[in-house]
């Protein structure tokens, strides 16, 4: 019983502390690309259209428009190739999966930004 708890704690410590985000948020995902003998980092900025799965199989899909063409990329949340996830905007949507965004273009495809109250540290 104790061995299982130790293994779970070790796995939890290995996972990077990634920010909390949901569908409708605009995020920038920095991930590692390996080309032959070189490694480089690339950033993919777009709107999260869904999060799915549980535990190690948890994934999220990010969509962006590149040169007038919609591009979607599915990232495993526990991937070692993901270097960083930065939340740029917090979107105000009512659904957990916003596939309807695929049919929209231009101004109709915009998502309202959720007003987030900034927490200021108290002066002591």
Q: What's the layout of helices and strands?
A:
Elements: H1 2-14, E1 26-35, E2 38-52, E3 59-66, E4 69-76, E5 82-89
Antiparallel strand pairs: 1-2, 1-5, 2-3, 3-4
3D structure, described in words:
- With 124 residues, this protein is mainly β.
- 10% of the residues lie in helices and 40% in strands.
- The chain contains one helix and five strands.
- It has one helix at 2-14, and strands at 26-35, 38-52, 59-66, 69-76, 82-89.
- It has a five-stranded antiparallel sheet, with no helix packed on it.
- The model has no long low-confidence stretch (mean pLDDT 85).
Key attributes of the depicted protein:
124 residues; mainly beta; five-stranded antiparallel beta sheet; 10% helix
């Amino acid at each position: 019983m104790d061995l299982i708890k130790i293994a779970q704690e070790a796995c939890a410590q290995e996972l990077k502390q990634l920010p909390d985000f949901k569908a409708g948020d605009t995020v920038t995902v920095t991930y590692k690309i390996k080309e032959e003998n070189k490694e480089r980092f690339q950033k993919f900025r777009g709107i999260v259209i869904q999060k799915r799965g549980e535990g190690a199989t948890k994934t999220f899909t990010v969509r962006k428009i590149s040169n007038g063409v919609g591009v979607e990329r599915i990232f495993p949340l526990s991937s070692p190739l993901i270097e960083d996830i930065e939340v740029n905007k917090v979107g105000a949507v009512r659904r957990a999966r916003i596939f309807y965004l695929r049919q929209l273009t231009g101004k109709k495809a915009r998502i309202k930004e959720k007003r987030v109250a900034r927490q200021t540290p108290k002066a002591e």
